[in-house]
Specification:
seven-stranded mixed β-sheet; alpha/beta; two-stranded antiparallel sheet; 252 residues
Length: 252
């Protein structure tokens, strides 16, 4: 008889609810990475996740921990209240760019500035995905969207916001990194960054945020493979990867 070898196992921190996302969407990859880190750090039982408005709102069914729904953009404020009320809990937000970098800009800047002991998973796919692919604060120059079909023009709508760089300036002692999930090498690097963002909170070192460059094939109007290539070809040159600040002096 042939011997069976297990090559895949669902992380314990995830439920068995099927992913609800479009084919090629990066949310599924990022969900799994967060869950794997939660397993490895053994924090699922004391974790509290904050889900935001947008495509990622569905993640309250994916993670097997307490989840709280926040109003659009208010995830960091809700997380701050939870962490201060329950300092023993591991509190994280999972937010898209339309949530964090648009209506929630004030909340994330002040949470980072105060060095709140929370972890933020920030998914940047450059559009408002859940509402039809409109231009977001992170949409690249000349990128076409449903709200700006001729492409983003900085004369009328400014330049894409580089949140990792911005937050590292207002909170230089926090852990702020930008990663991508367009190939296996970068997926592994993203997992390492997520683990560090949680570890910084667990060690009471400060605030942690990982900005993750993500694909949205449906609203980019590309197939999944072409979407991953676009991240490498167009998105990373504008949003460079790396660690922008860290409370660990040796990491600087």
């Amino acid at each position: 008889m042939a011997e069976w070898k297990c090559v895949f196992r669902l992380p314990r921190a995830m439920t068995d609810v099927p992913f609800p996302y479009c084919p090629g969407c990066s949310h599924g990859i990022i969900h799994r990475l967060v869950a794997e880190v939660m397993d490895e750090l053994d924090i699922t039982g004391k974790a509290i996740g904050i889900t935001s408005a947008g495509c990622s709102v569905r993640n309250w069914r994916q993670f097997d921990c307490d989840m709280v729904m926040a109003l659009h953009g208010r995830g960091p404020a809700v997380a701050t209240g939870l962490k201060r009320a329950r300092p023993e809990a591991i509190v994280f937000t999972y937010q898209g760019d339309g949530d964090l970098a648009a209506i929630g800009t004030g909340e994330i800047i002040h949470a980072a500035s105060r060095c709140e002991r929370i972890t933020v998973i920030y998914v940047n796919n450059g559009v408002f995905g859940a509402t039809g692919g409109q231009q977001a604060p992170t949409t690249l120059i000349e990128q076409k969207t449903t709200s700006y079909p001729k492409g983003r023009d900085p004369r009328f709508s400014g330049y894409p916001l580089k949140m990792a760089e911005l937050l590292s300036m207002v909170s230089p002692d926090s852990y702020i990194a930008r990663t991508s999930v367009h190939d296996v090498k970068h997926i592994l690097a993203t997992k390492k960054a997520i683990r560090e963002a949680f570890s910084v909170q667990m060690e009471d070192l400060g605030f942690g945020l990982v900005e993750i460059l993500s694909a949205c094939p449906t609203n980019w109007k590309l197939d999944p493979l072409s979407s991953l290539e676009r991240i490498k070809r167009e998105v990373i040159p504008y949003y460079p990867l790396g660690t922008f600040s860290s409370p660990r002096k040796e990491a600087r």
